[in-house]
Design brief:
The protein is mostly helical. It is built from seven helices and two strands. The protein has a two-stranded antiparallel ribbon with strand order 1-2. The longest helix is centred in the first third of the chain and has 25 residues. The model has no long low-confidence stretch (mean pLDDT about 95).
Length: about 160
Amino acid sequence: MSRTHKTEELLGIGPDSTLDPSIRAFRTVLTLAQRLRYAMDERLRADGLTTQQAALITVVAAAGKPSLAEAAAALGSTHQNVAQIVAALVRKDLLQVEPDPADKRRKLLATTNHNAAYWKQRDKDDFAAVADWFGDLTPAELETFCTLAGRVLTRLDQ
């Protein structure tokens, strides 16, 4: 029995599921998220990184120079958890912590030149791997998937 079939059977998420559709969807998304995180962790492990660390770097790069609280909110995580991730990324010279010029008590996060060089050399292969993971879905199905997941995310924010 394949791992996927065994998981579907144990969680009741396969095509023959008798679960309430919302419970089946929740379990399916949770299983998918766990598997995707594990797969990306495997890709990053040789460089001593995790998917969670990469997600924080993505948030910081996209936001410019967010505060720790802003980064934690964007990740849906706690201040304490993100502070631990920041400390690890500072040691790896992928992030830096700077004082906010407007409020010296507040700290801002920024990516480093080393970070930019690191991701430049690996993004192409990582993007190809992610595309492969979703390779059984058409572009239209991917758009629908993102739209539906986005609606659930919006609902959770309400």
